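Handout for the seminar on molecular recognition.
Each group receives one record of this type.
Step one: identify the two inputs.
Step two: read the structure output and locate the region that could contact zinc ion.
Step three: write two sentences on what you found, then compare them with the reference statements printed after the record.
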Amino acid sequence: MKPTHIEHIGIAVKNLSESIKYYESVLGLTCYAVEEVTDQKVKTAFFMVGQTKIELLESTDPEGPIGKFIEKKGEGIHHIAFAVENLESVLEETALKGVQLIDKQPRKGAEGMHIAFLHPKSTFGVLTEFCEDKSKQ
Ligand code: ZN
């Protein structure tokens, strides 16, 4: 298994529209999509930087994963996502290497991606996401 690139960096924010302004007016990026992922209790906004995206995450529920994260740690980098091929077999391989998985099976993320998270206890504190773009196959 070897990721092809960093697909995106997930950043937890309190206020999506306020933070979009920063990325647009200071960094000069363009928000090309805003999407609610009800599963995850988040609203997301996406920016392209080269082939990597910035994914801003605002919680729609204080009890959701991003709501809890912000309460504990404040705003900031939440996870890093690696693009992989054959996500199911990558997950099997990763589990066999003793890494704790949050998702044993791929599930649907934003933008129709198939995603799965690894537990930060097994990844030196970095919440790690694998994602596979099924639309490109
Ligand atoms: Zn993500």
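Reference statements: The domain at 5-84 is CATH 3.10.180.10 (2,3-Dihydroxybiphenyl 1,2-Dioxygenase; domain 1). The two ends are 18 Å apart (CA to CA).
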